[in-house]
Amino acid sequence: MDNSDNICRTCQTQLKRSVDKKEIVGFLEYPRRSLIVTFPVKMDSGKTKLFTGYRVQYNNALGPTKGGIRFHPEVNFEEVKTLAFLMSLKCAVLGLPYGGAKGAVQVNPKELSKKELERLSRAYIREIYAILGPKTDIPAPDVYTNAEIMGWMLDEYERIVGRKEPAAITGKPLCKGGSKGRDIATPQGGIYVLKEALKALKSKYPMVVIQGFGNVGMGAAKILYDEGYKIIGISDSNSGVYDENGIDIVKLIKHKDKTGKVSGFKGKEISNKELLELDCDVLIPAALESQIHKDNAANIKAKVVLELANAPVTPEADDILFKKRIAVVPDILANAGGVVVSYFEWVQNLDDKYWSLEEVLDKLNKKMVKAFNDVYKKAKKMKTTMRKAAYKLAIDKIMEAEKKRGNV
Ligand code: NAD
């Protein structure tokens, strides 16, 4: 089973668990529009290579669709479809005027030169531009794509349509209309939600453990460390470190930059399995999917699990954690900061007025706090998990809009 099977199975199960009516499950079981393209790219050698790309627009009841573009050698249609479904729910939970989409190209970007990567990015946009647009479908960066790639893609789109259209793609470089704060939006949004969760659960001075030390895990660690939180465990794909007195994150970042890994840093070396089962208050999975599963869920000791990764907890583990009264803040809420600031970027582009970092963070905080409280109250009322409550909230909003359109 590959990762896409895991994510698909998790999301399908969560969808079926969250709505009781078969009619709704049927309505949201398939994307509204899917495009699969195969296109040629000239390599530096002079030879032409064919690549496969996807763009899936899952549901557009609440607005134009929105979602990242991923470059990955193993990406496939099922995975893109599932991620587009999750984007639809994420936008709905956060109250954004968007539907959900996702795009991808099956490629290992590490094997391409910079010029090849640029030609591939532009070629992909030429294939899918007809279904994009600031009021239709707005891409953003995702795994192995970044602001520079978004800049090339936007430039290609603007050349085709023959006008400046900065709101057509978000996550752009600042000089091309990007938003301040976009680079830290995902971990920062997650931390705003975490603080609210700790308030609701009346937990003070928590000890934190983080799995993953990439964009999101490192970003979250840095924000928490700067705010005086004690991080006692942290890991990457090799292994983890544990220090009951707290890890100096600034020094760990330098160590990781120098050696490429977390291991070897001051503290006790531990495995990823041990890290997840550490005695702590907050556990933040920020690496891969399906990390907490039926075989280790019973050993989790945290009081709060903040899902910054997508689908890190399987449905079976969700049940076990709920019985243990461990609060899981679900991915579609916890890691939505990126799409929220993408929305802010789009608004600034349409308005042609640009905000300071303080304004962006203040607005992000308000959006995340409101979404958390909506989900938390719903979960209390339904006597269920925050995940089921978040799915229910999102699906109700989407189905209400579909009803008003006369589609249901
Ligand atoms: P990344 O590639 O920058 O970092 C991933 C980290 O996980 C790395 O430190 C890697 O060493 C570590 N890792 C890999 N396998 C591991 C394992 N088996 N055990 C422990 N650590 C392991 O990726 P990222 O952008 O930080 O994304 C992390 C997660 O957050 C993914 O699930 C991604 O889909 C999700 N996410 C990211 C964003 C974003 O803005 N980057 C937004 C929403 C969700």
* Number of extended strands: 12
Which sequence of strands runs across the widest sheet?
A: 9-8-7-6-10-11-12
* Helix and strand pattern: HHEEEHEHEHHEHEEHEHEEHEHHHH
Global outline = globular
Helix content range: 40-55%
Question: What does it look like?
Answer:
The protein has 408 residues and is an alpha/beta fold. It contains 14 helices and twelve strands. It has helices at residues 3-18, 22-27, 77-93, 114-128, 147-161, 185-200, 215-226, 249-259, 272-276, 315-323, 331-334, 337-351, 357-382, 386-404, and strands at residues 33-42, 48-59, 65-72, 99-106, 137-141, 207-211, 230-235, 240-242, 268-270, 282-285, 304-306, 327-329. The strands form two sheets. A seven-stranded mixed β-sheet has the order 9-8-7-6-10-11-12, sandwiched between helices. α1 (3-18) crosses α3 (77-93) and α6 crosses α13. The two termini are 35 Å apart. The protein binds nicotinamide-adenine-dinucleotide. Nicotinamide-adenine-dinucleotide binds at residues 186, 211-217, 235-237, 272, 286-288, 308-310, 335, 338.
Provide a quick synopsis of the model.
With 408 residues, this protein is an alpha/beta fold. The protein has 14 helices and twelve strands. α4 (114-128) crosses α5 (147-161).
Task: Give the topology, please.
Elements: H1 3-18, H2 22-27, E1 33-42, E2 48-59, E3 65-72, H3 77-93, E4 99-106, H4 114-128, E5 137-141, H5 147-161, H6 185-200, E6 207-211, H7 215-226, E7 230-235, E8 240-242, H8 249-259, E9 268-270, H9 272-276, E10 282-285, E11 304-306, H10 315-323, E12 327-329, H11 331-334, H12 337-351, H13 357-382, H14 386-404
Parallel strand pairs: 3-4, 3-5, 6-7, 6-10, 10-11, 11-12
Antiparallel strand pairs: 1-2, 2-4, 7-8, 8-9
Helix pairs in contact: 1-3, 1-14, 3-14, 4-5, 6-7, 6-12, 6-13, 12-13, 13-14
The protein binds nicotinamide-adenine-dinucleotide.
